[in-house]
Amino acid sequence: MTVSDADRAAVAAELGRAPRAIRAVAHRCPCGNPDVIETSPRLPDGTPFPTLYYLTCPRAAGAIGTLESSGLMREMSERLGEDAELAANYQAAHDSYLARRDEVARLDGIAEVTEIAGTSAGGMPRRVKCLHVLVGHALAAGPGVNLLGDEALALLPQWWAAGPCVPVAEPETAADEPSTSSE
Fold this sequence. Notes:
By secondary structure, the protein is mainly alpha-helical.
């Protein structure tokens, strides 16, 4: 999997540090920059890294932090105990997360990461512990996969409306490829 230098630079600017174990841009903000990256289940030094979808946009992260401080996670966790359909979706989201992380490990030639086997992120499948992870999963996987992530995402302001939070990553061009124009 190749991530462009421009995308790596944008993610580094968003995070304020070099990204670790980045393997793909999982979602792009409407401004054009990556806002969710997909990471390898092991860091380069061998440390297990359970967060498959890592939200990188500081504006989105800040808005999610506001939601977390509002008590939303507690309310969502309570609903999991009361709504069997919601709990079943959350279990399926957990299973989907684990399946994709296992697939990523295989694609990257990584042996099973036993230290994090069965552990997804964000509190799945029993409680809501981190909305950042749930929103990242919802953005990367698309609507309907993680209903609680979709719900939190719908509550966020349009974090991109003021323009990019860091300079927009320029797409790489194929300057060395022959032109197909008839000039």
